[in-house]
Specification:
PepSY domain-containing protein; alpha+beta; PepSY; signal; Nuclear Transport Factor 2, Chain: A; Cystatin_sf
Length: 165
């Protein structure tokens, strides 16, 4: 029985070490992905940044605006390979904003209880640009709406209930 317990403990330790290396070590960082798309569109502004699971594979979905051209990329989260790339002309581009997607993400994270970044998207409503930032807190998804020029928290969805700021 003692040998069985030793084998079980060793198996758990080895198994969890392997899991954490695969879960954390194989994935590119946000900065590495940003560097990849910035090489493709040097003057572009990131308007969407999301890590998604597509058919069992982790993929970064990135959208950038370069003037009135929107460029979309799917990037393999393990290798950095560009899996898909397309572009389209937009009639009404949002234009330049004062707050970057990184700043909007950080504002939302400060409002969260140990939230994990999921997605940020630059949007426009009635000529007012804002970021929609999604975070995960355990199994709860929260959304934060942040003014793209002032950084002001406009509203947040908590537990499905909208709280206006």
């Amino acid at each position: 029985m003692k040998n069985f317990k030793k084998i079980l403990v060793v198996g758990i330790i080895v198994g969890s070490a392997g899991f954490s290396m695969n879960a954390l070590g194989a994935q590119l960082t946000e900065q590495q992905v940003k560097d990849i798309v910035t090489k493709e569109v040097p003057n572009g502004q990131i308007t969407k940044f999301e890590l998604d699971n597509e058919h069992g594979k982790l993929v970064y979905e990135i959208e950038m605006m370069d003037g009135n051209i929107e460029k979309e990329f799917d990037i393999d989260a393990e290798t950095g390979a560009i899996l898909k790339s397309k572009q389209e002309q937009k009639a009404n581009p949002i234009g330049n904003v004062k707050i970057s997607y990184e700043q909007a993400r950080d504002i939302a994270l400060k409002q969260s209880n140990n939230g994990k970044f999921k997605e940020v998207k630059l949007k426009n409503k009635n000529g007012s640009p804002f970021y929609k930032v999604e975070l995960l807190e355990g199994s709860i998804e929260r959304e934060f709406f942040i003014d793209a020029n002032t950084g002001e928290l406009l509203k947040k969805n908590i537990f499905g209930k909208v709280i206006k700021m």
